[in-house]
Batch of 3 targets.
Target 1
Amino acid sequence: MNLSCATCPDVSTLGNVVYDAGMLIALATPKPGLALVRHNRHRTKGLPVVPAPVVAQAWRRGASQVHLARSLKDCAVICCYTESEWRRVGELIGEAGLPSKKRPDPVDGLVALTAVQIRANVIATSDPGDIQAYLDVLTGGDAVVPLRV
């Protein structure tokens, strides 16, 4: 990650959790319930980290985006990944032991890679099995827990 770019947040503000699209979709609902409770808890330890492609997966038109926009203000959206990191994501897709009915998802791979790179403890996700498959092939992935939202 190129966290020294002008559009990325200060590395000292990053928290110990990374969100995938499932968490953002949960936060976008008019009554986010447990997702909002967890979000408020996560942000006490720094800004939850959201890779920019995750925003694209979750963002849709409509009034519900007001809720998501509010939550994203409390997050660190990371947009600057290097070519070698994107290549590593491609390798993860080839190495991960995803269930046979699952399609590889480069954004899930990026979420897992980001969590390992920033030494996050948790990935808030709606697909813990998929995320775990990517973490299983990453050095340091055993230190990250995928938490279902």
Target 2
Amino acid sequence: MDAAAETLKPEAKAAKAAEATVEQITTAANTAFKDGVEKTLAAVSEANTHSKKNLEAVVASVTAATKGAEALGAQAMAYTKSAFETQAAAAKALAGAKTPQELFELQTAFAKGAFETYVSELGKMTETFQASFKATVQPLNERVSDTVSKLQATR
């Protein structure tokens, strides 16, 4: 029996070595799988966060654009009302003119005032539009900058 026990020893050693090797491979595979899953979950979480921030930026941009459009609309309505009132007053004044010279002077004064008011209002509306455009683009620009910096960091 001693000989049989001695012949099993090398086989037992080989079996134990094979078992240890399989255990090492299994442990390494489990660790690699666990690390891969954790990295994937982290990437998905980061992508979700990025998408959420993008959506928030779009909402902020649309809100700013809406406010800008409302401001421009209010300015246009105020100018239209003022221009109508000015035209009505000018029509009354023109109707009351006693001489062609007076009529010509009133018409000239009205035209000059209307043009100056128009240019002034156009300048105000341009300023409002520019401010609205900046406010509309800012959140989107911030997201693009963030994305570009993240892409550059991965290089």
Target 3
Amino acid sequence: MPDDEGHPRPDEMDLRTVLHALADPLRFAVIARFLAEPEDTARTCAYFRLPVSKSTTSHHFKVMREAGLLRMIDNGNSRTATLRRREIDARFPGLLDLVRAEAPPADRDRPAAEEED
């Protein structure tokens, strides 16, 4: 059962749900960008500047959270996300390595933006 914020425990993460979340090009790019950052880097949704509305951006982050890819932290008037790298690596060994290898060079080699929004 997910926690109060909707994060599944690692043993609850379902491969099909994770793959569904990664199947969308924008969500795949978000995860690839997190992989280009130092571990435990926290970013707001706005940091990624997705070419969609705020509500669609929120939907994408909800899908990634519910799949177990991201941990969302409420900071009062904003939320930040961190990649659940260690938990994903333990549950699905090699998956994030595949994402990193398949990411376009721009997503693989540098962070999404120069500064936090």
